[in-house]
Specification:
alpha/beta; 18% strand; binds zinc ion
Length: 222
Amino acid sequence: MEKHDHVLVVFPHPDDEAFGVSGSIASFIQNGTPVTYMCLTLGEMGRNMGNPPFANRETLPLIRKKELTAACDVLGIKDVRMMGYRDKTIEFEDNALIAKQVTDVIDELKPTLVITFYPGYSVHPDHDSCGEAVIEAVRKLPESERPKVECVAFSNNCVEELGEADVSRDVSTVQDKKISTIEAHRSQTAGLIAGVKKRLKANEEELLNWLQKERFWTYKFD
Ligand SMILES: [Zn+2]
């Protein structure tokens, strides 16, 4: 696995880090690379309230905050920054302000790799806006100082328009941590995780592929 000095992960929702990225995060940390996670919201508009339900609209933010902390503990992330934006409103926020906050963290930590969503290819408006702010922040840096930016994309047209992902990481050695990270976001994933475990037991190829391989698109700034 490639060596990095520091990895910065920027996503809008608790659990965005869990699905397609937690294997990479766990691998970096296992190799001694510190990872900082900027999470823009607490996902307080999340549709799920637990299965069976144990949250309500009032308690969900606090519950998701605890789940995020638990997920970070599983992964070994020691520096998680909860940015206090409101869920489902990132597209209406001042993108320049979010970009400035990302710039400040880049100045502080000098990450050599930044991971975020690919703007326009990440399905949810919060995801796309988050990715836009990060790209804007990195674009402003002198070319020689720019960290590598790896993007997660999962819209139906992403491969058609972006080509195949150029980064594919085998994270099979940390697959248990990945499952535990997804599981930590209990209010949102309890239903899903039961299915994952069942399919895992059956050694289902599609599931193993999803679990053990993480793919990213390196953002090209020209
Ligand atoms: Zn999300």
